From TrEMBL:
<comment type="similarity">
    <text>Belongs to the uricase family.</text>
</comment>
<feature type="binding site">
    <location>
        <position position="61"/>
    </location>
    <ligand>
        <name>urate</name>
    </ligand>
</feature>
<feature type="active site" description="Charge relay system">
    <location>
        <position position="243"/>
    </location>
</feature>
<feature type="binding site">
    <location>
        <position position="61"/>
    </location>
    <ligand>
        <name>5-hydroxyisourate</name>
    </ligand>
</feature>
<feature type="binding site">
    <location>
        <position position="155"/>
    </location>
    <ligand>
        <name>urate</name>
    </ligand>
</feature>
<feature type="binding site">
    <location>
        <position position="214"/>
    </location>
    <ligand>
        <name>5-hydroxyisourate</name>
    </ligand>
</feature>
<dbReference type="GO" id="GO:0004846">
    <property type="term" value="F:urate oxidase activity"/>
</dbReference>
<feature type="binding site">
    <location>
        <position position="214"/>
    </location>
    <ligand>
        <name>urate</name>
    </ligand>
</feature>
<feature type="binding site">
    <location>
        <position position="241"/>
    </location>
    <ligand>
        <name>O2</name>
    </ligand>
</feature>
<feature type="binding site">
    <location>
        <position position="60"/>
    </location>
    <ligand>
        <name>O2</name>
    </ligand>
</feature>
<dbReference type="GO" id="GO:0006144">
    <property type="term" value="P:purine nucleobase metabolic process"/>
</dbReference>
<feature type="binding site">
    <location>
        <position position="215"/>
    </location>
    <ligand>
        <name>5-hydroxyisourate</name>
    </ligand>
</feature>
<protein>
    <recommendedName>
        <fullName>Uricase</fullName>
        <ecNumber>1.7.3.3</ecNumber>
    </recommendedName>
</protein>
<keyword id="KW-0659">Purine metabolism</keyword>
<keyword id="KW-0560">Oxidoreductase</keyword>
<feature type="binding site">
    <location>
        <position position="60"/>
    </location>
    <ligand>
        <name>5-hydroxyisourate</name>
    </ligand>
</feature>
<feature type="binding site">
    <location>
        <position position="215"/>
    </location>
    <ligand>
        <name>urate</name>
    </ligand>
</feature>
Length: 278
């Protein structure tokens, strides 16, 4: 009789979408911080799966409470620093936990007065920490960065087969809801300053680059970051193409010189690339 061997493979558990807001009170102004935290733990949890033994399980509700409790004293600077503090806590206080992964997304708020703010829209600053006894990986980034340029973008000389209807253009709207994440070689003393500088480099490159394709601009943006910041090991960019289609005004006897467009949400092109150091 054939014996079937079954065992538990890679597994993890944690708490997602922990919503936290904090006021950091200074003498002459307040800082308002709004973050979403995801916690994921790996370790010796096999008996919980195979035997229903929960003696090695730290409840996800406790993980949630830990985020709020540690935020009081330790969420005072960058989201990277707070994520690292959370990861260290779970690994060092729970013997059965080998690796903690903490992901944080921070909403963008800009100060109007010392105590009033305006939302930065959907844009978010992100951080991901993967921490264990052997290594620490620090990944920073930005998501939902909606950027657009009205010229210096084209798309020509592509493959044309029996199903191709797209027309070549040397002048089009280039819009994307960019997501970027970069891996540091080690730890930094000031993650916020580095984030601000990298964000500015990404925006400046996008605005100034004469784009022959989304792919080319993606590479140029990643290349600019790696050239400017030796502390960055690699950078990944996701750039969905938010299409603006030229509307046919000829049916009304009118010309359309790249002036009137239809903005579409779906379907959209999805371009992803990682730029690395050799």
């Amino acid at each position: 009789m054939l014996t079937i061997m079954i065992k538990l493979g890679e597994n993890s558990y944690g708490k997602n979408a922990v919503q936290l807001s904090k006021i950091i009170r200074h003498q002459d102004h307040h800082e308002f911080r709004q973050i979403t935290v995801n916690v994921s733990l790996k370790g010796d949890f096999e008996t919980a799966h195979t035997l229903g033994d929960n003696t090695k399980i730290l409840p996800t509700d406790t993980q949630k409470n830990t985020v709020y409790a540690l935020a009081k004293e330790h969420f005072t600077s960058s989201i990277e620093a707070f994520a690292l503090r959370l990861a260290e806590h779970f690994v060092h206080t729970q013997q059965q936990v080998s690796t903690a992964t903490i992901e944080i997304a921070e909403a963008a708020w800009s100060r109007i007065t010392p105590h009033a703010y305006i939302s930065g829209g959907t844009e978010k600053r992100t951080a991901k920490i993967i921490y264990n006894a052997a290594s620490t990986t620090i990944i920073s980034g930005i998501s939902d960065l909606l950027i657009l340029k009205t010229t210096d973008s084209g798309f020509e000389h592509f493959i044309k087969d029996p199903y191709t209807t797209l027309k070549e253009t040397s002048d089009r709207i280039f819009a994307t809801q960019c997501e970027a994440s970069w891996v540091y070689k080690g730890t930094l003393s000031d993650y916020t300053a580095m984030f601000d500088n990298i964000r500015a480099t990404l925006l400046g490159t996008f605005a100034g680059h004469k784009s022959l394709s989304v792919q080319q601009t993606l590479y140029a943006m990643g290349e600019a970051v790696l050239e400017a910041y030796p502390a960055v090991k690699e950078i990944t960019l996701k750039m969905p193409n938010k299409h603006h289609i030229l509307f046919n005004l000829e049916q009304f006897g009118m010309s359309n010189q790249n002036e009137v467009f239809i903005a579409t949400d779906e379907p959209y092109g999805y371009i992803v690339g990682t730029v690395i150091r050799e």
